[in-house]
From TrEMBL:
GO BP term, pick one: sodium ion transport
Superkingdom of the source species: Eukaryota
Biased composition range(s): Acidic residues: 478-491
Region described as Disordered: spans on this chain: 472-491
Protein name, as recorded: Solute carrier family 5 member 8
Record-linked NCBIfam families: sss (TIGR00813)
Bilayer disposition of the protein: Multi-pass membrane protein
Length: 491
C-alpha cells in the first residue's frame, strides 16, 4: 500500500473527493500548523528533564533534540521512524518501571502508595458532575477524551500514513489493536509514576518549596533523589523520556514533509521519483528547523500536557468535524465544509486564547492541596510550612471570563468537531447539497461499520470448526459406484 496525505489514499473513504476539492488548501494549512505547534511542545518537554538531571543548558538540549530527530528522519524516512519507535517504546517503559519498582521498595508495596493517594484526594475518578466548566470530571475525560483521541487516531496525518503504509487493511487493523495494548501500558505506567511521586512528596512538594523551576521537572527530580545512587539508572530515565519525544517528533516531521510533497508539489510539477525523494528529504530538514523554533513558544504555555491537548482540540477538532461531514453526510459539499471549518476553528480558537489569557479561577480547576511541612533547607532546618489550597473567597469576573473562558480544555475538540459538523451540514443543505451525485463507496455506512467485525467473526468460525470438525460425507456418485462394485459378480 502506498502512502501520502491522509485524504489522498483511494482505499480511505474520506471526504475530499466529495467536499474538499475546493477546500484542500485549507486542510493543507491546518495539518502542518497542528503538527508544528504540537511538535514544538514535544521537543521542549524532555529538555526540562535533561536540564534537571544533568545540568545541561536548557536551550542547548532543545537544539540537540531537534537536530537529532531531523537528522535520522531526513535520511531514513518513514521506515526509520517506525523502527526507531519500536526501540524507543522499550526504553520508555524501562524508565517507567525503574521509577515504579524503586518507589515500591521505598514505600513497601502498592498499598501505602494507593492509601496516600486516597487520603490526598488524588483518586477522584467518580466525579459525575456534568458541569462542562469543571476541569476534570468523568464526563470531561470520557466525552472530551473520546473526541480528542478520535482526532489523533482518525484524521491525524502522522497516524494515518502508518495505517496506509501497511501491506493490507487487515495489517492496519491489527497494528491498531497492538497499539491499544501499548497505549494502555504506557498510560498505566505514567499514572502509577504520578501516584508514586505524590506518595514520596506528599509532605514536601518540590515545586512549592522552589526546589525545581517548573512542574514538569518534578519527575526528573524524583529520579535523582531515589535513583541517583544507582549508576546509569537516571540516564535510563532520561533515555526513556527522550524516546517518547523522538518517536513523536520524527513522526510529525515525516508527516509534514509527506503533506507538502503530495499536495503542493507532486500535482503541479512534473518531476521524477528521484527528484521528489530529494525534495522530500529537503522538506524533512526544513520542517525540523521550523519545529525546533516553535519550542521557544512552548516555554510560555505553562503546563505542557494541557497545552498539547488544547492544541489538538483547537486544530484537530475542526479537522475531525470536516472529515466526519464528508464520511457521514452524502449531501455535504465544499461550501458547507468551508463554512463549518471556519466557524468551528474560530470559535474554539477564541475560547482557547481567552482561557490562556484569563485562566479559570481555582474554584473551577479545583487544585488539590500541596504541603511543604516536611521539607528541610540546606542547613538541615525545617523549611517554612506552606500548604496550598483552594481559596474560600472569589472576586467577581465578567460573564465571558466566568463561563466562556472557563470551559474545560478537554472539551475543545468536542466543541470544534460538533460546530464544524452541524454548521457544515446546514450550509450544505442550504447550498444545494441534496442535488449532487455521490459515490457511495466514499461514505461510511452500515456495511463499513460491520466490516470491522468480520475478521473476528471469521476467526471464531475457524476456531469452532477446528474444535468440532464437520463429518466427511462421501459424494452421491461415489456411494452409488461403491454399491455397484459390491453387487457385481466375482466380488
Amino acid at each position: 500500500m502506498d502512502f501520502g496525505a491522509v485524504w489522498k489514499h483511494p482505499q480511505c473513504k474520506l471526504p475530499p473527493k466529495i467536499i474538499l476539492k475546493d477546500t484542500i488548501y485549507v486542510t493543507c494549512v491546518f495539518v502542518p500548523l497542528l503538527q508544528i505547534l504540537y511538535t514544538g511542545i514535544v521537543i521542549y518537554s524532555p529538555s526540562l528533564a535533561l536540564n534537571q538531571v544533568t545540568g545541561f543548558q536548557l536551550w542547548g538540549s532543545v537544539v540537540a533534540t531537534g537536530l537529532v530527530c531531523t537528522f535520522y528522519c531526513t535520511l531514513g524516512g518513514l521506515k526509520a521512524v517506525i523502527w526507531t519507535d519500536v526501540f524507543q517504546f522499550i526504553m520508555m517503559i524501562s524508565g517507567f518501571l525503574a521509577v515504579i519498582i524503586r518507589t515500591l521498595i521505598i514505600k513497601g508495596g502498592f498499598g501505602p502508595i494507593i492509601e496516600d493517594a486516597r487520603r490526598g484526594g488524588r483518586l477522584r475518578y467518580w466525579d459525575f458532575d456534568p458541569n462542562p466548566l469543571k476541569r476534570h470530571t468523568f464526563w470531561t475525560v470520557v466525552v472530551g477524551g473520546t473526541f480528542t483521541w478520535l482526532g489523533i487516531y482518525g484524521v491525524n496525518q502522522s497516524q494515518v500514513q502508518r495505517y496506509v503504509a501497511c501491506k493490507t487493511r487487515l495489517h492496519g487493523k491489527l497494528s491498531l489493536y497492538i497499539n491499544l495494548v501499548g497505549l494502555w501500558i504506557t498510560l498505566s505506567s505514567a499514572v502509577m509514576c504520578g501516584l508514586s511521586m505524590y506518595s514520596v512528596y506528599k509532605d514536601c512538594d518540590p515545586w512549592t518549596a522552589k526546589y525545581v523551576s517548573a512542574p514538569d521537572q518534578l519527575m526528573p527530580y524524583l529520579v535523582l533523589e531515589i535513583l541517583g545512587d544507582y549508576p546509569g539508572v537516571p540516564g535510563l530515565f532520561v533515555a526513556g523520556t527522550y524516546s517518547g519525544t523522538l518517536s513523536t517528533v520524527s513522526s510529525s516531521i515525516n508527516a509534514l514533509a509527506a503533506v507538502t510533497v503530495e499536495d503542493l508539489i507532486r500535482p503541479y510539477f512534473t518531476l521524477s521519483e528521484s527528484k521528489l525523494q530529494w525534495i522530500n528529504m529537503g522538506m524533512n530538514l526544513f520542517f525540523g528547523i521550523v519545529c525546533l523554533s516553535m519550542a521557544a513558544a512552548a516555554s510560555t504555555m505553562g503546563a505542557l500536557l494541557q497545552a498539547a491537548l488544547s492544541i489538538f482540540g483547537i486544530l484537530g477538532g475542526p479537522l475531525l468535524g470536516i472529515f466526519s461531514l464528508g464520511m457521514l453526510m452524502p449531501f455535504g459539499n465544499a461550501k458547507g465544509a468551508f463554512s463549518g471549518l471556519v466557524c468551528g476553528f474560530s470559535l474554539v480558537l477564541w475560547i482557547g486564547v481567552g482561557s490562556h489569557t484569563y485562566p479559570p479561577p481555582s474554584y473551577r480547576t479545583l487544585p488539590l492541596p500541596l504541603s511543604t511541612r516536611g521539607c528541610r533547607t540546606i542547613n538541615g532546618t525545617l523549611a517554612p510550612q506552606v500548604t496550598t489550597s483552594m481559596p474560600l473567597s472569589t472576586t467577581p469576573r465578567p460573564g465571558v471570563q466566568e463561563y466562556w473562558y472557563s470551559l474545560s480544555y478537554l472539551y475543545f475538540s468536542t466543541l470544534g468537531t460538533l460546530i464544524t459538523f452541524f454548521v457544515g451540514t446546514l450550509m450544505s443543505l442550504a447550498t444545494g447539497g441534496l442535488k449532487q451525485e455521490v459515490d457511495r463507496k466514499l461514505l461510511f455506512g452500515k456495511e463499513e461499520f460491520l466490516d470491522n467485525f468480520i475478521y473476528w467473526k471469521s476467526k471464531w468460525v475457524l476456531l469452532f470448526e477446528k474444535v468440532h470438525p464437520p463429518k466427511q460425507v462421501a459424494p452421491k456418485e461415489e456411494m452409488e459406484e461403491s454399491q455397484e462394485m459390491e453387487e457385481s459378480p466375482g466380488m
